[in-house]
Amino acid sequence: MKLTTVDFYLDWPVSIKIKNLRNFIISNLEKKGDVIRWSIVDIQNSIDSFETKKLKIKAVLAI
């Protein structure tokens, strides 16, 4: 097992409510490996017209 640290950018669509955000983030991170820990480092408004937000996630994954 190898531990790696990744900075992961993720679009947060308007359709994902705040109470479902944790599951949304974890399901996207699990595509890259087993999630050990993660945190939201930054949230920015996207420049597109769909009112999505960009999340910057820092995670430790076991690959």
Walk me through the topology.
Elements: E1 3-12, H1 21-29, E2 34-45, E3 53-62
Antiparallel strand pairs: 1-3, 2-3
Describe this protein's structure:
The chain has 63 residues and is mainly beta. Helices cover 14% and strands 51% of the residues. The chain has one helix and three strands, in the order βαββ. A hairpin with a 7-residue loop joins β2 and β3. It is elongated and about 40 Å long. The mean pLDDT is 91.
Q: Work out the radius of gyration.
A: 12 Å
- Main sheet: which strands, in order across? 1-3-2
Helix proportion range: 10-25%
Taking the alpha carbons of the first and last residues, their distance comes to 6 Å
- The total count of strands amounts to 3
Q: Rough shape?
A: elongated
Summarize the helix and strand pattern as letters.
Answer: EHEE
Class derived from helix and strand content: mainly beta
Q: How much strand content do the residues show?
A: over 45%
Task: Give the low-pLDDT segments.
Answer: none
Task: Report the major sheet.
Answer: 3 strands, antiparallel
Number of helices: 1
Average residue-wise pLDDT: 91
